[in-house]
């Protein structure tokens, strides 16, 4: 599946001046060992509006001689002058602090922002006499961090449960302007994607860093009739885990983001909204997105109403309308919470048990060959793809928010019964696999109990965002700065790079196996795609060998 496309912003154009700066930076002696991804990360950090990826850096450096020879025009400097963000640590910490204040329904003034900026500066050992947080700096900070777009959720907006009938009627009125295929709901869920290292069928899990590293946040979204389940978004704790080293991230079944807490953040949510808008604009569809009022979910309409012509921060959501569900009602009105996520997790459990069974049957040591983030994303995508259309439809009907819902509770009650039966079916699949696992040789009751304990952990409601103390904010910033940008996580093994010849041989074997199958599950029409890539690889192998022979032909005899 394609990776989330880069959103088009008004400031993503890269001027000749910035291209020159990139080339100058990359050719400095102290930066020669930096990777292209590190260069991209540096310029993105210094100017969040750029959003440069590694491939763009590669193209720019490919024309390094040209850009270094150019003298930037004054107009280019005026429009796209690259200025480093002063006090980057302070700005990152301050952005998290504002987000936390929003999560706790605390009002934030410019005076408070300035005072907190001085506090974080002191904590990062920046002398007060060396800094000046002027009103201009505050305004730029607010624009760079979309401070105005944070949605405050006060108690006045909370909907008591006795008003559920009224809230349903309001939602039905809003939703009636859209066809069911263009009404979407999205929600995050926390997931312990594997057993903790200290729990690998040996002991119970204990809270702490090791357990945190097994947690990811998964964002799922689907329309009201289950015909369009969007590509899952996964947030891990490592930006460059070993399992993704050398992997083309366009090939991943999930969109991957990371921060040290593996939490949803305002910037990630904003990028996802832009991806949604680009996707449906290309399809010429206008959709309604229902979401809860989590602090990381900001209202783009409120933001855009306050954007000036100088900020260039507008999200320009031309094809996505965001509507927030009333606070304190999501357990009753949000379809994802009505059983869709529960079904997804039950199916993920099945994939995990199959993984464990395969490891045991292959005599693989579970501790040294634990499931990694890449495998987890594959299971996440497969589980999400396996959630039944009937389950999705039932869960939307359960909420009673769709325009076609009857005024009485009969339709809702029928959906409740249908969904309960679906839940039992999902759980039955888990129990069947557990029976298969328990029948394996050398499986003790203790081991079976531990895997059951892990499966129960999957069902836990795990925070996907959480307010931080000032000390935790500082620690978080320092951890992210000290993170190895190349490869980091607790996976011990590198991702093995498969040679073209190895890939060709494996594909050839697979095609032969495919041709020998008589099961209806193997659609012989689909074998064409494998033969197509066999042809592509065969041609590339031929070109590679031909080029090698031509190169050898020109080697002098005396060498």
From TrEMBL:
A GO term from the CC aspect: nucleus
Family matches, as InterPro entries: CenT-Element_Derived, DDE_SF_endonuclease_dom, Homeodomain-like_sf, HTH_CenpB_DNA-bd_dom
Residue intervals of the HTH CENPB-type domain: 78-151
Protein name according to UniProt: Tigger transposable element-derived protein 6-like
Record-linked PROSITE patterns: HTH_CENPB
Top-rank taxon: Eukaryota
UniProt keywords, alphabetically: DNA-binding
GO molecular function, a single term: DNA binding
Organism (species): Rhizophagus clarus
């Amino acid at each position: 599946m394609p990776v989330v496309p880069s959103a088009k912003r008004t400031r993503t154009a890269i001027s000749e001046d910035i291209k020159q700066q990139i080339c100058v930076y990359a050719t400095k002696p102290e930066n020669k060992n930096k990777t292209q991804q590190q260069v991209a990360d540096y310029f993105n950090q210094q100017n969040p509006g750029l959003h440069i990826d590694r491939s763009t850096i590669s193209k720019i450096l490919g024309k390094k001689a040209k850009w270094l020879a150019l003298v930037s025009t004054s107009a280019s400097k005026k429009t796209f002058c690259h200025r480093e963000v002063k006090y980057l640590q302070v700005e990152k910490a301050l952005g998290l602090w504002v987000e936390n204040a929003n999560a706790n329904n605390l009002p934030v003034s410019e005076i408070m922002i300035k005072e907190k900026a001085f506090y974080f500066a002191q904590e990062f050992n920046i002398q007060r006499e060396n800094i000046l947080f002027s009103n201009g700096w505050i305004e730029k900070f607010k624009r760079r961090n979309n401070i105005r777009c944070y949605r405050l959720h006060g108690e006045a907006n909370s909907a008591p449960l006795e008003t559920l009938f009224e809230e349903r009627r309001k939602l039905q009125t809003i939703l009636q302007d859209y066809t069911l295929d263009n009404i979407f709901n999205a929600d995050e869920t926390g997931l312990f994607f594997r057993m903790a290292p200290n729990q690998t069928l040996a002991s119970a899990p204990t809270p702490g860093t090791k357990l945190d590293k097994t947690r990811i946040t998964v964002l799922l979204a689907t329309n009201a009739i289950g015909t369009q389940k969007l590509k899952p978004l996964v947030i891990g704790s490592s930006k460059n885990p070993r399992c993704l080293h050398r992997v083309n991230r366009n090939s991943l079944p999930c969109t991957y983001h990371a921060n040290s807490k593996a939490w949803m953040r305002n910037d990630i949510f904003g990028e996802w909204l832009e991806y949604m808008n680009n996707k449906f604009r290309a399809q010429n569809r206008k959709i309604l997105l229902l979401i809860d009022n989590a602090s990381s979910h900001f209202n783009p309409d409120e933001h855009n109403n306050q954007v000036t012509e100088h900020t260039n921060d507008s999200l320009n959501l031309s094809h996505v309308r965001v509507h927030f569900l009333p606070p304190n009602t999501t357990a009753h009105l949000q379809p994802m919470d009505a059983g869709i996520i529960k079904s997804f997790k039950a199916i993920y459990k099945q994939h995990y048990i199959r993984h464990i069974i395969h490891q045991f049957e292959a005599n693989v040591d579970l501790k040294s060959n634990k499931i990694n983030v890449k495998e987890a994303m594959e299971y996440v995508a497969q589980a999400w793809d396996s959630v039944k259309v009937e389950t999705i439809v039932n869960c939307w009907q359960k909420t009673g928010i769709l325009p076609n819902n009857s005024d009485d509770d009969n339709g809702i009650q029928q959906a409740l019964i249908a969904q309960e039966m679906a839940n039992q079916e999902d759980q039955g699949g888990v129990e069947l696999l557990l029976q298969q696992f328990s029948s394996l040789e050398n499986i003790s009751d203790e081991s079976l109990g531990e895997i059951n304990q892990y499966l129960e952990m999957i069902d836990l409601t795990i925070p996907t965002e959480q307010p931080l103390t000032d000390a935790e904010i500082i620690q978080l910033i320092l951890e992210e700065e000290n993170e190895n940008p190349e490869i980091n996580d607790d996976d011990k093994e590198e991702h093995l790079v498969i040679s073209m010849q190895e890939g060709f041989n494996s594909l050839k074997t697979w095609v032969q196996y495919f041709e020998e199958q008589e099961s209806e599950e193997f659609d012989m029409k689909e074998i064409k795609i494998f033969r197509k890539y066999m042809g592509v690889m065969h041609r590339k192998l031929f070109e590679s060998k031909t080029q090698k022979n031509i190169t050898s032909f020109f080697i002098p005899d005396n060498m």
